[in-house]
Design goal:
By secondary structure, the chain is mainly alpha-helical. The chain is 83% helix and 0% strand. Helix 6 runs antiparallel to helix 7, helix 8 packs across helix 16 and helix 11 runs antiparallel to helix 12.
Length: 378
């Protein structure tokens, strides 16, 4: 019997289909690749400098496309350059990529093109994106430490239940002693985790999925966000973050000659907290009806503190609302920066108390029956 050792040759059609599939996969991977805030900051800053130096918009975009390393962003900038070279407005070109640049970015560019102040508006957009990115980075960096500690505490607790408590249970079983309720509860939890490990893991995963899904549902977002601004310590931080973004965004939009009603609509769409979002969107009609900015904010004392209302009133009287809100944004951003720096020192004692209480209760649950056993032996 002779074995046929010839390799199977692929046909040109199969090779063609494979190449098409591979190219489609690469294109898909480029589509889902993210465009970071730093890349957008670099893009806007350099575009503003080029336009200020007298370089044409299409040429500026082509130059930036050559300097961009992100393949997806490079394609987008190239497409923008191609559109503007054909005579399409920069705003209309950007609207094709609203998911990348956002409604705020496009609205500000549109106002800049209409007023003929695109270079000044790009500078304002650069400051807006930069401040927003810095604020987000500070919050994320400050929250990393508490999250690591909480995860470590949970891991240690589970490890104790799986590896330590079962060994102690064996001692109690041999002595056939009467156990106190705290020890029975500890043993019950340990037995459940030990004998139902897969079930516990599934329940933990389902709990995480439930929280993530409900956080994305519009019907439940409001209740989560209501809870966020009423949590001790963290509620104050959430309020300051939303107030800083509110003041910064409204100030930037007014500086680009966008009407206050439109500014409220845009800001309402980009604010994360649903309570602040609803307050702004609900205020649009009142502003259209002739209400002042101060009277609108006064309707929501739980969201906008007196300092915001009073400073806004002063800005409306002097016609410097954009400058006043810019100063308020600086104030709240500085407040957040200071809070984030001191947050670990604030949370650390609380975490230590929780950890100490957990260890103490576990120790009491283990030591109490041992003390009873020693009395029984004596």
């Amino acid at each position: 019997m002779v074995l046929d050792l010839k390799t199977k040759e692929t046909s040109p059609e199969q090779n063609s289909k494979t190449n098409i599939w591979f190219k489609a996969l690469l294109a898909r991977s480029e589509e889902i690749s993210s465009i970071s805030a730093k890349e957008k900051i670099f893009f806007v800053q350099n575009l503003q400098v080029m336009i200020r130096s007298g370089l044409a918009l299409d040429r500026s975009l082509k130059t930036l496309a050559e300097q961009t390393k992100n393949k997806r962003f490079k394609k987008i900038i190239t497409a923008l350059a191609y559109d503007t070279e054909k005579g399409v407005s920069f705003t209309d070109s950007l609207k094709k990529y609203e998911s990348v640049f956002g409604h705020l970015f496009i609205s500000m560019v549109e106002a800049g093109e209409i007023s003929g102040r695109l270079e000044a508006v790009l500078k304002q957009i650069y400051l807006q994106i930069k401040k927003s990115h810095e604020l987000k980075s500070k919050v994320m960096a400050a929250m990393a430490y508490p999250m690591i500690v909480v995860i470590a505490m949970a891991g240690i607790g589970i490890g104790m239940m799986i590896f330590v408590v079962p060994k102690i249970i064996g001692i109690f079983d041999q002595m056939a002693a009467q156990l106190p309720p705290a020890t029975k509860f500890l043993i019950g939890v340990s037995n459940f985790i030990t004998h139902n490990g897969i079930l516990c893991a599934v329940l933990a995963v389902l709990a995480v999925i439930f929280v993530i899904v409900t956080l994305k549902m519009e019907k439940t977002k409001y209740y989560y966000h209501y809870l966020f601004i009423h949590i001790p310590i963290f509620g104050t931080i959430v309020k300051k973050i939303n107030l800083a973004r509110f003041a910064r965004t409204i100030s930037s939009l007014i500086k680009t000659d966008i009407a206050i009603m439109k500014a409220f609509e845009i800001t309402g769409e980009i604010l994360g907290n649903r309570l602040y979002r609803q307050s702004l969107l609900a205020s649009v009609e009142s502003l259209r009806g002739g209400s002042t900015l101060t009277s609108v904010l006064e309707k929501y004392p739980q969201l906008y503190p007196p300092v915001i209302v009073q400073m806004t009133a002063a800005g409306e009287e002097t016609g410097t609302v954009d400058e006043i809100l810019g100063e308020l944004a600086d104030f709240y951003e500085e407040e957040i920066d200071q809070t984030m720096k001191t947050l670990p020192s604030i949370i650390e004692p609380i975490l230590l108390l929780v950890l100490g209480a957990g260890v103490g209760l576990m120790a009491v649950a283990i030591i109490m029956p041992m003390y009873t056993l020693t009395q029984y032996v004596n």
